[in-house]
Amino acid sequence: MDVRDEAAVLGTLQTWAESNENIRGMVLTSSRVIPGSTIDFLSDYDIELYVSDLTPFADNDDWLAFLGTIMVRWPYLPRSTMNPDWITRLVLFQDGVRVDFQITDNRAVPSNAYSNGRKILIDKDQLFTSLEEPTYTDYLVKRPTPQQYEELVYEFWWDAIYVPKYLYRGELPFAKYMLDHTLRHLFLHPMIEWYIGTITDWNANPGVWGRRFKYYLEKEHWWQLESTYAGAGLEENWAAFFAMLDLFSSLAKEVGRYLGVEYPSMLSEDVTQYCLWIRGQ
Length: 281
Prior knowledge:
Elements: H1 6-19, E1 23-29, E2 45-51, H2 55-59, E3 70-79, E4 86-93, E5 98-104, E6 119-123, H3 146-159, H4 162-168, H5 172-199, H6 213-216, H7 219-226, H8 234-259, H9 265-279
Parallel strand pairs: 2-5
Antiparallel strand pairs: 1-2, 1-6, 3-4, 4-5
Helix pairs in contact: 3-5, 4-5, 4-9, 5-8, 8-9
């Protein structure tokens, strides 16, 4: 598969937009404009289009033919997925190029609209002349309040009791849901992000779903995180579960110490012993 390079893709986009009167502005955003981002052949192009008439984009995807043959797209039909003023078209083409379009006919662009970086590709109506300089801080880890920290810790230890319950019963789907969705994504990942914040003076962007954790965590913590992943075997899921409890407790103690909040050691010990008791039945 011969994937077009950035110059070719952006050149095609600009040529199309220049010759299309409906397109009034076009902006490249996200990783391709953030300094220090890792870009490879799998990196998509995040494009925001400002148009006079949204109808051609809302009716069908015929307008995408200029970029090539479509392999797959999302959503299946054009629609808004976040902001009701915008239509979303995420498109993977047959040659491996992916372009994520957000399209709007609202051409009132706030001055802080692109605080996390942008590259103006087309501006026929001077829509972007008042933009502020990017700060690149939108996706940095935010320091939690003591209340946010305490709520996350206590709720983690409540939800932890579900995993051994369903592992003991051999009900793997529910156990995996609690381990890999609830405990991991709702509790462990935020705690890892906060820990990374404490060691980087809150100047880190770990990425969506922890995609950059490996670049920030010390090797020991990364190896611990790796040990929390398991396949379908019940025994390996028991091991992954207790590894997760250990890692969460270790990081939460560090974050609590940084915030000046006492970590509930007795709670974590009691729940861990309860889970070990279920494991031994």
